[in-house]
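PROTEIN DESIGN WORKSHEET
SECTION A - STRUCTURE
LENGTH: 440
TOKENS:
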């Protein structure tokens, strides 16, 4: 395995979860499990599976449903390296299966998932042999020889294309067919973890997101996943980023608790069009049993999109808050500004902003939907931009504080320039705090 200039962590370390309360958990995405600056979707899925496991070992232990049998996740926004928080909702608790919803946030909601739990040890019912086989059949394998890279039909890949950018791929050792892939739309592989760990059901989320990328197989005459020279393959291709839009996994078999060393995976795509592609994975063990099935919807984007600065709306300080039963907005952005309330017409539309501080009354200003107003309050100017969508029920407010000439400052008031933002779910009249957008 080549040496890389970054610190390395194990899968267990990258999916370590801490309980905050019965339905809230915290984790952390290490940078060595990323693609560019974005955590690999597979390690994100691994964290979701770890949250579900811990939740059913503690809060829902009485359900006796420790195993995830189905997993659906939507990647709403680009994630980032570092701390993350998970919020669990017990959607449906049943005798045979239970369903939970998990939302992951890093200052904003970024990934959501539904997980179906059951007990794969006690599971029983009708079983029929469907005679399923992979077509074309993959070459046979001798796992003892494969470990020494002496298998007749499979060879070890020393390094995957663009490994310095796609750091997460260095966590697996890949073995590809010596005679090349059966088709450009197909990627066959035998894999094991480079971290010294064995593969369990908890790590299947990561395994399901590691495969030869079909886009790169079609873009050149020679399939880069057939080439024995990774440097030659890299020179032919521009770097692309393939963010996952959604990922589904169905868990068919419970792997041993101690895990297995090797798994086989076949990745297949049916269409790549307009920057979007499907991916279908079949994961099998050494006995030929189906361990998991997975389906992805992915985008094909320039690598620059991965490392580009985030938009203002993505800053951590702008968190979403649940609705409050109080119907009058209470805005506290500085010690000098105590409260601010809104007048509304019979239809409930905001028509004016009122407020007070230690220096006196605010000047009343009309505020209409999708309309920007500026008003003078005491000795300070504020730009108040309020938007409310009756369709989504989301209201957002931005207040910009601008320093005036020193002679106009009120000595009793602490003036701090900056932009303060707030967002909420619910009605325009609900309570919501402001957060300093440009805070250090």
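SECTION B - SEQUENCE
RESIDUE ASSIGNMENT:
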């Amino acid at each position: 395995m080549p040496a890389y200039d970054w610190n390395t962590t194990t899968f267990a370390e990258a999916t370590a979860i801490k309980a905050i309360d019965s339905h809230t958990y915290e984790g952390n995405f290490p940078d060595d499990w990323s693609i560019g600056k974005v955590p690999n979707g597979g390690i994100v899925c691994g964290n979701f599976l770890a949250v579900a496991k811990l939740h059913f070992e503690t809060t829902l232990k009485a359900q006796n449903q420790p195993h995830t049998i189905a997993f659906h996740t939507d990647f709403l926004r680009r994630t980032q390296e570092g701390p993350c928080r998970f919020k669990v909702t017990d959607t449906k608790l049943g005798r045979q299966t239970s369903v939970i919803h998990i939302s992951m946030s890093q200052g904003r909601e970024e990934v959501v998932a539904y997980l179906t739990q059951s007990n794969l040890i006690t599971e029983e019912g009708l079983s029929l042999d469907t005679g399923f086989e992979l077509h074309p059949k993959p070459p046979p394998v001798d796992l003892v020889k494969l470990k020494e890279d002496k298998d007749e039909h499979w060879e070890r890949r020393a390094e995957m294309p663009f490994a310095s950018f796609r750091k997460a791929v260095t966590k697996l050792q890949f073995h590809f067919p010596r005679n090349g892939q059966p088709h450009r739309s197909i990627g066959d592989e035998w894999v094991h973890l480079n971290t010294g760990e064995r593969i369990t059901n908890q790590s299947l989320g990561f395994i399901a997101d590691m495969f030869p990328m079909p886009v790169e197989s079609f873009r050149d005459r020679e399939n880069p996943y057939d080439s024995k020279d990774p440097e030659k393959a890299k020179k032919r291709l521009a770097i692309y980023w393939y963010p996952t839009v959604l990922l589904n996994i169905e868990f068919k078999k419970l792997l041993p608790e101690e895990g297995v060393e090797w798994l086989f995976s076949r990745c297949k795509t049916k269409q790549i069009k307009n920057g979007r592609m499907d991916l279908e994975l079949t994961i099998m063990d050494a006995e030929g049993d189906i361990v998991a099935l997975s389906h992805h919807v992915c985008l094909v984007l320039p690598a620059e999109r991965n490392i580009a600065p985030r938009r203002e709306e993505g800053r951590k300080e702008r968190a979403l808050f649940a609705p409050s039963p109080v119907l009058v907005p209470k805005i506290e952005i500085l010690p000098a500004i105590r409260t601010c309330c809104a007048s509304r017409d019979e239809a409930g539309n905001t028509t004016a902003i009122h407020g007070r501080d230690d220096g006196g009354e605010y000047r009343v200003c009309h505020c209409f939907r999708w309309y920007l107003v500026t008003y003078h309050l005491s000795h300070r100017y504020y730009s108040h931009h309020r938007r409310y969508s009756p369709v989504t029920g989301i209201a957002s407010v931005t207040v910009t504080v601008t320093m005036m000439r020193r002679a106009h400052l009120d000595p009793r008031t602490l003036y701090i320039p900056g932009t303060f933002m707030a967002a909420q779910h619910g009605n325009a009249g609900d309570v919501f705090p402001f957060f300093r957008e440009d805070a250090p």
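SECTION C - NOTES
The chain is about 10% helix and 40% strand.
Residues 313-341, 350-440 have pLDDT under 50 and may be disordered.
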